[in-house]
From TrEMBL:
Domain NADPH-dependent FMN reductase-like: start-end pairs: 8-148
Keyword list, A-Z: Oxidoreductase
Lineage, broadest ranks: Archaea, Methanobacteriati, Methanobacteriota, Stenosarchaea group, Halobacteria
Gene Ontology molecular functions: oxidoreductase activity
Family indicated by similarity: Belongs to the SsuE family. Isf subfamily.
Domain of life of the native organism: Archaea
InterPro entries linked to this entry: Flavoprotein-like_sf, FMN_Rdtase-like_dom, NAD(P)H-dep_reductase
Protein name: NADPH-dependent FMN reductase
SUPFAM superfamilies with a match to the protein in the record: Flavoproteins
Acetylation in keyword set: no
Names of the cofactor(s): [4Fe-4S] cluster
EC number: 1.-.-.-
A Pfam family it matches: FMN_red
Enzyme class: oxidoreductase
Species of provenance: Haloarchaeobius litoreus
């Protein structure tokens, strides 16, 4: 965490790989959030015991710690690799433990990486989930295609891509306290998240 405790931005990494490009990109976005004077934290799902979500046991394992971390953040960045046209299972499982208490009126930024071309569908699917939880999703989003070519020794190769990812962190701080929109239609139908 950074030293300024007035505003907090967390990033949840939906990749479990050791050399995860998603994690590298989220760290870059969090660095920009720190530069904008926010306290930051990378939520690395490898460090959480989160059994496959079961609605009959929604406080299993480390779920209470995860939900508390999300609830207490002013803004959340969600990062994922694109798997089969959507976002990754570890992130889906983590989000299933959350609900309106964690995300309603929360500012959320989206980032997705892929081995192929643009991971747009993963971003669209995450945007739909956030809308169902009545979160406010930052219009700016970061997509990193052909991620294996995007980094060299942990740093971005392309300055424009690095700037796009950094902007996500900056916008998370800028819009962390934006006035919430009226409830979305999708959220009114999402009774399971209450």
């Amino acid at each position: 965490m950074s030293t300024d405790e007035d505003l907090s931005v967390i990033a949840i990494c939906g990749s479990l790989r050791d050399g995860s490009y998603t994690r590298k990109a989220l760290r870059h976005a969090l660095s920009a959030a720190e530069d904008a004077s926010a306290a930051t934290e990378l939520v690395d799902l490898r460090e959480y015991d989160l059994p496959v979500y079961d609605a009959d046991d929604d406080v299993a394992g480390d779920a209470p710690g995860l939900t508390r971390t999300v609830r207490e953040a002013d803004a959340v960045l969600l990062g994922t690799p694109m798997y089969h046209g959507s976002y990754a299972t570890p992130l889906k499982n983590a989000l299933d433990y959350c609900g309106f208490d964690e995300f309603e009126d929360k500012t959320v930024g989206l980032l997705a990486v892929s081995g192929g071309h643009f991971p747009v569908t993963a971003l669209e699917h995450l945007r739909s989930v956030c809308r169902a939880l009545n979160a406010w999703v930052i219009p700016h989003q970061a997509a990193i295609p052909q991620a294996y070519q995007a980094f060299d020794d942990g740093a971005f190769v392309d300055e424009k891509l690095a700037e796009r990812v950094a902007t996500l962190g900056t916008r998370a701080v800028q819009y962390a306290n934006i006035e919430p929109d009226p409830a979305s239609f999708e959220s009114q139908e999402n009774v399971g998240a209450e």
